Amino acid sequence: MKPTGFVFHEDYVKHDTGEQLYTLGEQKMLSVGLEFENHLRVCLIKEMLEKSGLLANMTPYAPHLASDHDLLRVHTQRHIDRMKETAQKGIRVFGPEVYGCPVSERIARLSAGGAMKAVDLAMDNRLKQAYALIRPPGHHAGVDQAMGFCLYNNVAVAARYAQEIYGLERIAIVDWDVHHGNGTEEIFYHDKSVLLISLHEAGYFPMNTGGAEEVGTGGGEGFNVNIPLPPATGDAGYQYAFENLVFPILEQYEPQLLLVSAGQDPNGLDPLSRMMVMRPGFRYMAKSMREVAEKVCGGRLAILQEGGYSLPYLPIATLGVIEGLMDCTIAFHDPHSIPERPITQELIEAVETVKNVHSLYWKLNYSSSLSL
Question: Could you name the domain of life of the organism this protein comes from (predicted)?
Fold first, then answer.
């Protein structure tokens, strides 16, 4: 198995997002269970890694809290102060679809700190790769706003940390979360030193973002690559998108560090997606990122947990990610099966649209040497 760092902190479970409540008239409430982004997500992933034996083959590391200086590389002071004040007052709503409790701002700093620790491990020649099981997620948080379960943008904090501490000039972020990484896009939209490739379900969340025509502006033009995919894309469809877009662009960009916003919410049982990716698809995506990193940036790779909300399937999907990262396959019978999705004409057209837009910036009409 490939040597791999594992970043986690027990305090991640303390971020309490509460219950999902329906209001049915005056003083009539119906609880339908925990909020989608709840503490059981990291508990079940960690338990799966422990009981599969994978965690015993990883090197554990605990993160530190991100400081104001770390967060200010990405966010405004106003945003940080607002998050602290919201937590101190015990207000449950931190932003649009962002819920928490009095310790949530601190735990969000710990999540960003986990992303930075993963960078340290990726830059350490003894490991070169790491998986950070962090919470809350981050890729919807913008410069001045919390959004969509995210208080601070973990992957953006990690990228800016890598630039300042390690002097890196080119960092690539691949975001395969089912939702568009709009916060990450906003932060780096004018900046060619960070290439963002976001694969996401088209026309979903957030609305009106993530179109193929959003390519960046100024010096960042061409370095923001949105790949909106049709529902039910499936394992084969994601592989098609990786081979036709992700690989050739990464090969030409030649990043010095590869970061992955790894949301396992494209899985076929997720309540917040319709993309039908299963464990083999996640294994493929992580394996491909590992092998790309080995070819273009000396293996320097950090995979950061984002979304994934099916408690029965999230640990299985993440098992696939870690199998791909560590170059192994665990003997585990997946009790869930869905029909394999073929590559459709709709998918081909979606990929061709992105190729047509980005052919101004990248060579996309040849077979990349990174096709795996």
Answer: Bacteria
Torsion of Cα atoms, 282 then 283 then 288 then 289, to 10°: 70
CATH class of 5-19+31-358: alpha beta
**Tens digits of per-residue pLDDT, 349-367?**
999 999 999 999 999 986 5
Respond yes or no: is residue 9 known to be catalytic.
no
Q: What share of the chain is helix, strand, coil (3-state, %, to 5)?
A: 40, 15, 45
Q: Residue 308: left if φ>0, alpha if ψ -120 to 50, beta else—which one?
A: left
SS (H, E, C) 1-54: CCCCEEECCHHHHHCCCCEEEEECCCCCEEEEEECCCCCHHHHHHHHHHHHHCC
Which residue type sits at 234? G
| Whole-number Å distance between alpha carbons of 101 and 89 | 9
Tell me the average pLDDT across 280-299. Answer: 98
Residue 27 confidence (pLDDT): 83
- Return the amino acid letter for 215: V
Q: Decide if pLDDT at 371 tops 50.
A: no
Residue in 120, 129, 284 with CA at minimum distance from that of residue 199:
284
Say which of 9, 15, 140, 200 is annotated catalytic. Answer: 140
3-state secondary structure at position 68: helix
The ranges assigned to domains in the chain are 5-19+31-358
Do the beta carbons of residue 261 and residue 176 sit within 8 Å? yes
pLDDT band at 369 (very low <50, low <70, confident <90, very high): low
| pTM of the model as a whole | 0.97
Residue 228 contacts residue 202 (beta carbons within 8 Å): yes
Q: What type of residue is 272? A: L
Q: How far is CA 336 from the centre of its chain?
A: 23
Question: Average of pLDDT values for 158-184?
Answer: 98
- Of 225, 80, 53, which Cα lies nearest the Cα of 143? 80
